[in-house]
Specification:
Elements (H helix, E strand, L loop, with lengths): L2 E7 L5 H8 L5 E6 L2 H14 L1 H5 L3 H9 L1 H5 L7 E5 L5 H10 L6 E5 L2 H14 L11 H11 L1 H15 L7 E4 H6 L1 H12 L44 H8 L7
Helix pairs in contact: 8-9
């Protein structure tokens, strides 16, 4: 019987790297960005806003559909352990997992110094002239957009804070990007132990790229990884004001 686990957390925090590593284990399927949150959202929108459904509701059938969604979606995959990456820690998505995931919920949450997350995105804009951040002239403007106007980073930060405040964070495994990069085998063993999967000895000197992303459609290659684990250092200058403002968002370390 398949088991379904989850990978979530901040972007630019090793999500693709970790999934690429785990996929060396032929008993694991670690995905790219999962479509499941969107599937649940779209289906639940139908039940709430669709006039046809309002006129002829079929709640019990939809409940059955939801409960079979995981097994039906991955029916042709041979691996016993499916690890989906996505924003599963948001309150709505987490509730959907609680309602419909067929096994105990286990989520590895990857985090990284927020300023380093911003620098990673901004550094990417230096080498990709059509990248959307290049509509802004300065690095500070790019950082402000990522933190205050683009919803994703804030969504994940707010979700982590909710888990911490409710003490639910104890059910999940938080891993710092820098610590994982420094001691990958130590943290891989922790991940395997948390997921309750028999440990597999990975070759960290020849990591195969996670396949499936079509980043070229969006003028970037954000999900491209190196063959070995290397920490990136970014030559990205930000003002002291920006550094001070956004460094305060690493609240999971408190």
């Amino acid at each position: 019987m398949k088991q379904y686990f989850f990978l979530s957390g901040l972007p630019r925090s090793g999500n693709t790297l970790l999934s690429s590593i785990l996929n060396e284990n032929k008993n694991i399927l670690a995905t790219g960005q999962s479509i499941f949150p969107s599937i649940f959202y779209d289906l639940q929108t139908i039940t709430q806003k669709n006039d046809v459904y309002t006129n002829y509701p079929q709640d019990e059938r939809f409940e059955t559909f939801y409960k079979n969604l995981f097994n039906n979606f991955f029916v042709n995959d041979k691996q016993n352990f499916i690890i989906q990456r996505g924003e599963f820690i948001t309150p709505i998505n987490l509730q959907n997992l609680k309602d419909y995931c067929p096994n105990d919920i286990k989520i590895v949450i990857l985090v990284r110094d927020v300023v380093d997350v911003l620098k990673s995105f901004i550094n990417h804009s230096f080498t990709h002239k059509n990248y959307y951040l290049n509509k802004f002239k300065t690095n500070d403007e790019k950082a402000k957009f990522l933190m205050e106007e683009h919803p994703y980073i804030n969504l994940i930060l707010e979700s982590i804070k909710i888990l911490i405040d409710s003490n639910e964070i104890k059910n999940y495994l938080i891993i710092e990007y820098d610590e994982f990069i420094s001691n990958p085998k130590v943290y891989l063993k922790k991940i395997y132990s948390y997921y309750e999967i028999n440990y597999f000895e990975h070759n960290l000197n020849k990591i195969n790229q996670l396949e499936g992303y079509k980043d070229y459609l969006y003028n970037h290659d954000l999900h491209k990884i190196k063959k070995t684990i290397v920490k990136n250092n970014y030559n990205v200058e930000l003002s002291e004001h920006v550094l001070d403002k956004y460094s305060k968002f690493n609240f999971w370390r408190l």
